[in-house]
Automatic annotation (TrEMBL):
NCBIfam families: PRK05480.1 (NF004018), udk (TIGR00235)
Name of the protein: Uridine kinase
Compositional bias (Low complexity): 277-290
The family this protein is said to belong to: Belongs to the uridine kinase family.
EC number of this enzyme: 2.7.1.48
Region of interest (Disordered), residue spans: 270-296
Catalytic activity: cytidine + ATP = CMP + ADP + H(+); uridine + ATP = UMP + ADP + H(+)
Keyword ATP-binding (UniProt): yes
Pfam families on file: PRK (PF00485), UPRTase (PF14681)
PANTHER family: URIDINE KINASE (PTHR10285)
Amino acid sequence: MAEDDTPIFINVDSESRPVISRTVSNSRAIPLQAKKNTILKSHGRPPWYSEDGLPICDAFVVGIAGGSASGKTHVARQIVQKLGSIPTIVILSQDSFYKRHTPEEVELAHANLVDFDHPDAIDMPLFAACLSDLKACRQTNIPIYSFAEHQRLDETKYLYGAAVIITEGILALHDPALRALYDLKIFVQCDSDLMLARRLRRDVKERGRTVDGVLDQYLRYVKPSYDNFVLPTARYADIIVPGSDNSVAIELIATHIRKKLKERATRFRPHMAQAGSRSPTPLSLPSTPRVSALSPPSTLRVNAMTDPYENLIVLPQTPQLKGIYTILRDKNTSREDFIFFTDRLATFLIEKALEHLPYRPRTVRTPVDVDYVGKELDVKYICGVSIIRSGGPLERGLQRVINDVLTGSLLIQSDAQTGEPLLLHLMLPVCIRERHRAKETWVFLLDAQIGTGAAAFMAMRILLDHGVREDHIIFVSFLVARNGGICVLRKAFPQVKIVCGAVDDGLRETWLEAIESGEGQIEAEARKVWVVEPGMGHIGDRYYL
């Protein structure tokens, strides 16, 4: 039986050294020791989709099987070490997927009378479903199994965003549905005596078991399972790796994975930046914009005859709004004034965005005992998600308008070498993390501006991967570049509503100078960037610094 599978997070630093951090589940202290399920993060997840908004590459999945104590987990971690600077990796253990037990089965398990090495002990359909979701770049929630309680817990572990998934377990190659999901299948071959010696040392030292108990379980369950179910799966493997002295094999595997990831790379941001110039219907706002008859009188929409993207909603260009933008665009505006007027503008934008939520009639009794027929929100779940850090200035406006709203965040930054957007971190509300609830959730997606639109594009794709409906996403922004990425967004996500305060004319291509360290070494090469003009500068920096 495998070791405790409670997940830990391992963040790989710039030198690819794992830094293990403690996690807590249901207020239970978790010992700082090696765990089976791990999430490893390095320089982030690059785009996994094309300009039409659809995924073009699945996660790369590796399946590792072998006998108990053959060294499967060690091989998985060695592969990660050899890969070096890589996108997010998940190491997924089959031990998470033991079936839920009856009280009678739990009692037998405590007496070591349950065969946990038999294929029937694993919930293979659930295992395949979770792995299929991860491979297809969708979120999933894997079960958590407690070996102390010999039971699957009610809680689950949320996973999303892996570019490489390594699945390991004694029966990882047993089920045909699982094998169909692997891009690379590995079997760890190890001498039986060595596996028994490792198991004895592990179970006695780490689990407090007796030698007699370990041997009894090994002879009764582990060895027959290995002979009947585990060893025969070696014929499905693409490569057989020795359980010790396997550095050459691991280097070959890592080289193969790096090659496959390189083949899947895409140059996304330049296409977004150049989309407006080659678009047959560039974004344009007529001098006298047409008001949609179906929308509130104050809503100014892009003229549908000149631009098919009718879900771009621009605030009325009143003298007051123009005055606010004049103050915000002035580089000499004090930080206090910038924060004040940014918060005011954010409130205007969120109030406008609220007009596009569904409402139902509601009758209330007023203090003068007269019935009033009004409206109330007709939504089950509503939340906000901001793109750190430029989306932060819009959060206060959202909280002013909906004071108890749940909020989450996405950290999307540009790769220092290529300029491509990278997903570095996400913290989403629970109503998005669970797919059955995400379908009924309305999301305010917050970002300061849409220039190339690369970050906005990635954020929308992330929400769709979680099951949020496209027409339930309302993107709120201060500025939109007329000929920038909005031209791609309108085609890829035509049902997403975008609420903004102004449309700027230019998206200028320029170069970001190379960054030198104090020792004269180049930390980041010069790269191409695109700047919105006239723009408001780096809104997040001006707001927070």
